[in-house]
Structures are given as structure tokens and as C-alpha cells.
Amino acid sequence: MKTAIVWFKTDLRVEDNETLIKAISQSEQIIPVYCFDDSHFETTSYGFKKTGSFRTQFLLEALENLDDNLRKLGSGLVITKGKPEVEIPKIVQYYKARKVFVKREVAFEERKTEKLVQDKLFKLRCEIETFSTSTLYHAEDLPFSIKNIPDVFTNFRKKTEQDATIRKPFEKPKQIYSPSIPVLNLPTLIELGLEFSELDSRAAIHFKGGETEAIKRLNHYFFETKNLSIYKETRNGMVGEDYSSKFSTWLALGCISPKFIYNEIKKYELQFGANESTYWLVFELIWRDFFRFMFKKYQTKFFLYSGIKTEKVNSKSLNDKLLFQWINGKTTSDFINANMLELKLTGFMSNRGRQNVASFFCNELNMDWRFGAAYFEQQLIDYDVSSNWGNWAYLAGVGNDPRGHRYFNIEKQASDYDKSREFRNLWLK
């Protein structure tokens, strides 16, 4: 019997999941697997956890929901924990699988792990096949090769919009054939080396992990409230759950795909009309694509102090006292403090807040930007390797900003975006 493994990573969904669809079409039975990679729960060289408790809690909920959705189709989710290059081959041997289907990675560490697994599977005469499932535009459909992708977003966007098409999303499978899958057995936060973080009651939104919640959020933001029609005007808001879509959290773990969202935007436009706001959400999805493709192009460079600029000597060190003040909302700026407290106590921060606290970190505190990026990696529920490190490099002047350096006037930003002090009053009381 042809048995295949579907190794889930940051694609925790059954709708529009090419990896799952291709595995089903090429196999007689499949085993869906998720591996808790030990390295994801270690402390990084910057002194922060790679994955903090807010994101881990969201991940556990997402896996529970994935298992539930798989069981409705006749399958379930096998959980393993350790090093993927050890654990995935073990499962391959146990189920006598001949192929592993998995989403394709772009960032350095993830690709390294993928290669280690591939080498171990080769010895077991087991093939690995990867699929690109994280972007709106497929890499093969871009009007340029990866090495020739423009480094300036506007050039990338215009040419891509003009010359590339967005593929249709894959429908979810009607049935999955699997052997009997044991009851879901998730590790606890304590087993993962973390403590439970209670969500602050002032949180803009209570994120719950999983594809079911992602689709529920989309329906709320699009069809129930029609907030999509005013997205461009409200997206720089800072208080409440509906000033922006908040999709980034579910996108980061692949509980929903960009193509699925795009398809729903098109349905919405047919029903309620297209405008600048409905386009603007697509525009933001293209930004997300851009950073992912930049990582394919530059690989490890986004983790260097010099970023994708070749010769920038690291002139900035770390000041523990200033770092502590920034993290704990004790800086000289009340606007920065309010944003940093929101991040610390909820795992979320608005897009406007992120740009300001990053600019403050790089320009006012004058510290090595990578420590800021590493703290975000630990803290953000919606952490996505390409978007996080790509955006930080951009603001530090070593990424894709054509102007070379972006400096925010924090006081002006505060009066523009928190005119009535509603946001600061909420978090600083």
C-alpha cells in the first residue's frame, strides 16, 4: 500500500493546501504529522526565546483545530517532538511511508532543517516533495527569476500585477484515507519550557488559533461588518479589533492562505463593490509576498547587521538598561511605552506602532536592530520570519527601503495617530 506523510509546518489548514491535495492524489493513505521542533523553543543568541508563550498558545489551538478538521475528513494529526531530522524519519519507518509531502521553506534555518530531513530520508529510500503554499503569487509565475527580483517593492509590485496571475485556491479534500490515527496528544506549555501568559483585558482582539477561527474572522471583517470597504482609511488605527483585518496572525501559521483571502475579496467586490480599500488589502498581501521572495533571493543576509547592504560596519552595540526600558515601556516617550506594553501583555501591536518602536530603537536608542527583531520574534503572535526580519532591516536602513533610512518623528506620529490620546490612556493608566 502506498503510504505518504504530510508534514505540516506553517500551513495548518485543509482549505487551499496543495501539499495535502497532492499527497492525497498520489497515495492510497496518508499520515498527517506535526513536529514540535526543539530548536523553536530554545533561547536565541540575542537572549530571547525563539517562540514565546502567546504564539505557542495560539499554535496549540491551531493544531487542535487542524486535528478536528482532519478527523471530520477521516484522518487526524500525529504529534511528535524533538529534532525533525530524527522524528520525521522515525514516523516514515513506522508507517513504511515512501514519500513525504511538505511546504517549501525560504529562510535559512528552516531550509537547513529541511535539507537535514531530506538527507536522512534519502537513506531510507523515501522521497521528499516540497510545495510553495505561503504566497499570493506563485514563485514560478513571477515575471522575473528569483535572483532578478527588483529590490524596490514598487517595481516588484507593478511588474508582478501587470504580468503575473494569481492561481485559484485548491478546494479542501472531501475525504482522507488514513490508518487509525491516535488521539491528539499535544505537549503542554511547561513541557515546551514556557509559562502560561494571561491575556491583558485591554487587548485589541482575542486571537484564537485555527483555520475555523481564521475563516470566522474573515467573514466578520468582510461580510458581516463590511469593514473591508473602509480598510484603507482605518488601517492605521490603534484601538479595537476592527480598524484592520488582523489576518496576519492566522496567515503566519498558515491557518488561512493569501489566495483564499484574495478569492474572498473578489467575491466581496462582486457583492458590495470594489474600491481603493478592497484593493489595499491585496496590496498588503503583495508586501508579504515581497519579503518572502526577498528571503529566497538573499537568504542569510537579512540576519546580518548589514542586511542586504554589503558594507555597513556594525557601529552599534547593546545597552542592557535601554533595552530593558524599551521592552517594559519605560522610555522617555509615552507613545513608545504604550505600544511596548501592548506587545508585552498581549503579543500584538498595530502596524503603526511597530514602525514607530522600531524607528525609536534604531534611531533614538541607537542599538543593533537585530535585538529588536529578536524580541519581536519571541513576543509576536503573528511572527513571520520574512516579514519580521525584512521589516526591521527596512527600518534600520539595511533592507529594501529605496530611501536608505527611515526616521520617524515619534511626537508627530503620536499626535497624528493618537490625537485624542485614547491609545496612550488605555495602556498607560
Layout of secondary structure:
Layout (H helix, E strand, L loop, with lengths): L2 E6 L9 H9 L2 E9 L15 H20 L5 E5 L1 H12 L3 E5 L4 H16 L3 E5 L21 H11 L47 H14 L6 H4 L13 H5 L5 H15 L3 H23 L21 H8 L6 H13 L4 H14 L4 H11 L5 H12 L13 H8 L4 H7 L1
Parallel strand pairs: 1-2, 1-4, 2-3, 4-5
Helix pairs in contact: 3-4, 9-10, 10-15, 12-13, 12-17, 13-15, 14-15
Keywords: Chromophore, FAD, Flavoprotein, Lyase
Protein name: Cryptochrome DASH
GO molecular function: deoxyribodipyrimidine photo-lyase activity; DNA binding; FAD binding
Give a structural overview.
The chain has 429 residues and is an alpha/beta fold. It folds into three domains: 1-133, HUPs (Rossmann fold), CATH 3.40.50.620; 135-165 and 211-300, Serine Threonine Protein Phosphatase 5, Tetratricopeptide repeat, CATH 1.25.40.80; 304-428, DNA Cyclobutane Dipyrimidine Photolyase, subunit A, domain 3. 47% of the residues lie in helices and 7% in strands. The protein has helices at residues 18-26, 53-72, 84-95, 108-123, 153-163, 211-224, 231-234, 248-252, 258-272, 276-298, 320-327, 334-346, 351-364, 369-379, 385-396, 410-417, 422-428; strands spanning 3-8, 29-37, 78-82, 99-103, 127-131. Strands 3-2-1-4-5 form a five-stranded parallel β-sheet, with helices on both faces. Strand 4, helix 4 and strand 5 form a beta-alpha-beta unit. Helix 14 packs antiparallel against helix 15 (385-396). The longest helix is centred in the last third of the chain and has 23 residues, at 276-298. It is globular and about 65 Å long. 44% of the residues are buried. GO terms for molecular function: deoxyribodipyrimidine photo-lyase activity; DNA binding; FAD binding. Residues 2-136 form the Photolyase/cryptochrome alpha/beta domain. FAD binds at residues 231, 244-248, 284-291, 382-384. May have a photoreceptor function.
